[in-house]
Amino acid sequence: MEQESRGAVLRQREIYVNGAAGRRSPVPVDMEELEVAARDVMASEAFAYIAGGAGRESTMAANLAGFEQWWIVPRMLRDVGTRDIATEFLGRQLASPLLLSPIGVLEMAHPEADLAVGRAATACEVPYIFSNQASVAMETVAEAMGDGRRYFQLYWSKSNELVESLVQRAEAAGCEAIFVTLDTTLLGWRTRDLGLAYLPFLRGKGIAQYTSDPVFRKLMRQGGGDAPARAPISVKALATLVESAMSYPGNMLSALGSGDALRAVRTFVEIYSRPTLTWDDLGFLRGCTDLPIVLKGIQHADDARRAVDAGVDAIMVSNHGGRQVDGAIGSIQALPAIAEAVDGRIDIAFDSGIRGGADVFKALALGADVVGVGRPYCYGLAVAGETGVSDVLNNLLADFELTMALAGVASVGDINADTLARA
Questions:
Q1: What is the pLDDT of residues 353-403, one digit of tens each?
Q2: Separation between Cα atoms, residue 325 and residue 319, nearest integer Å
Q3: Which of 132, 164, 251, 351 is the most exposed place for a label (fewest CB within 10 A)?
Q4: Regarding the domain delimited by 7-186+274-422, which CATH topology (the fold level of the hierarchy) does it fall under?
Q5: Residue 114 contacts by C-beta under 8 Å, 6 or more apart in sequence?
Q6: Domain-by-domain residue ranges, the chain?
Q7: Which is catalytic among the residues 320, 355, 362, 375?
Q8: Catalytic site residue 320?
Q9: Taking the complete model, does pTM exceed 0.85, yes or no?
Q10: What is the signed CA dihedral for 74, 124, 106, 170, rounded to 10 degrees?
């Protein structure tokens, strides 16, 4: 009997067999249904923050619609009994071409936040890019992941000392690369959040990488004075203050009494990101670490060429899931020209708009080496915690493997532009 790769087939069979026994996962397989299920269990502010984009959200729409500009062209009578979805990125072997893109403030989706995602990523052998805006410190998540693969997303703050500290902590926590986010030196005009007048960071959420950092705590003391100024007293203001104290490390009452919770929020707001960042600053980062450096947010071929010339190890074609520039080019639309400009000299990661196995296939065919998924795993987290993240990842991996096989392709290395046609 011919040997056959069974991962996707077993996953498919598991779902059907469980259904026959009256057991169905609460995590919908269909991505649109999954988003609806997450919306139903999340607070309105939390769902708006995760699901929303910039302006009229036309870039979000372009990310999804861009995949429809390409069709997969299946080939017949090719032996796909054994499938190999392994690939290589940054010189290391990966079990699949899938990554978990960084998403901040995961405590808004589920109390276990980054911990649940990290454990699920390890179980599914999918590398996890830790968010700089995490709800749990990177060291704690790394410990929970064991030998699971991880990278670190860096938001370049106004303090280079803090940048260096975060990078060195990431290296010590076993992260294998630094993904520098370039497209969020300022927050985009996010209409859903603005309509609710809600920003989680002002409530102390999503700043665990900062409050756990010794340099940040030093900056708090330097900039905070003896006590922060008091805001006008109201029930809402008091509730917000308590909320920030609950997110601060240690004892909530101590964080309230000392003023550290409010001081942390104010320090974060002051130094969060640096709009003056230029190509010249990359030399400082290279001096901080020997880890591979990945520039996340590349959308133009000239910037891709500049990245190669700057000596970085990889780029990530991404528009932040449409959360920064309304009316910007969809990432999948930008990918072919960028891949041509790079011409294999450095690796290319991709994210923004991945909703199924066919999307992963198309991104690889158009020049990506690995593909990041974002909102779907967060929706799975909201619906069912760690199990929900695992379900989303296992479904996406099975969908990709079956798509690849039914297209007549037995390995990731054989996915190329010849497998696609323009719609």
A1: 999 999 999 999 999 999 999 999 999 999 999 999 999 999 999 999 999
A2: 8
A3: 251
A4: TIM Barrel (3.20.20)
A5: 106, 130, 131, 134, 135, 136, 141
A6: 7-186+274-422, 193-271
A7: 320
A8: yes
A9: yes
A10: -110
